Amino acid sequence: MNARVDNSVLGHLSNRHLDALEEETIFVLREVAATFERPALLFSGGKDSLVMLRCAEKAFGAGRLPYPLLMIDTGHNFPEVTEFRDRRAKELGAELIVRSVEDSMARGTVRLAHAGESRNAHQSVTLLEAIEEFRFDALIGGARRDEEKARAKERIFSHRDSFGQWQPKAQRPELWTLFNTRLAPGEHFRVFPISNWTELDVWQYIARESIDLPSIYYTHQREVVERRGLLVPVTELTPPREGESVVRRDVRFRTVGDITCTCPVESTAATAADIVLETLGAEVSERGATRMDDKTSDASMEKRKKDGYF
To answer: 193 in helix, strand or coil?
Structure first.
């Protein structure tokens, strides 16, 4: 039997796969709108939340999102991403709610161990404060199971207790896409419509749908230093340490987050199609390759999720 497969057949199979993922995501987004009274969609301006927004547009129609967008801002985000976030929300005619870790610091609910500490993990406090402020009963997030081992344990409808905590043993079965969405007072759900997508699926969908992204997802030149196997961007918040050599490299970001803990990878990929090819050969997950805060057990994803993280 000939092992060669026609490219048109491969393209057809790929589209069928993406169509199935898209249909599941649209189903979940509509289920949230139908089930909960005060949902919100977590929107960072990153690629995963932009994929969810495209599916939401298809689910409800352009300019007709039934829930607001919520951003928890550390104050240390890449300017290209926050500018894109604001522009995209305006284009969609969506309500954008931004709550800042800096406001939590001013209230005294967040206290840094030192001025240079990453604020990323402290977003949990600000998020829980926003949930209490707006009485959200469901927050839609862009987490995927392939990202990290703790996220691989997640249900699509992830129950959170009255303290906003994730308890792995208290999660509910999701057999035959039947979701138990009952809540006691003070509880809420985190909902992950693209749980079953992979990084490759996301980029194939971005390429197929021609989804606009912040420019730093594509190749650009940036000053970096090599540290613990990562390329750390040189910024005011992340200056080079003594003995480190600053080099200028062609890089892109696989994921975007707080400047203090997010690193680029070396790349000359200028289009989504280029990134699809790079992703096919990737041997390390995007968080494993780019996140400094995932390198230490004290800041493990599972611990942070139990504290109320996304």
So the answer is: coil
